[in-house]
Amino acid sequence: MSVTLQSITAKLRDSGPRLTAQHKQILRLIAQGLPNKVIQHETGLTITALNDTLRGLYRVTGTRHNRVRLAVWSAKRGLV
Q: Residue 35: which CATH number?
């Protein structure tokens, strides 16, 4: 069986937590290096809702409240 980067990326993407479209949007914005204020504006979330969502993303991804790790986690799974 041939293993390709695309097959590995697809496997990682499919094996992770189920993310909503909004979660994926937030991950893309974080990967762009945008601050919470801009992400809040882009998503229409309140700052409290955004912080709650980020805490949930940190928890389910195991990235320990680290935006860089969250961006790397997302990139490895082909989400950004």
A: 1.10.10.10
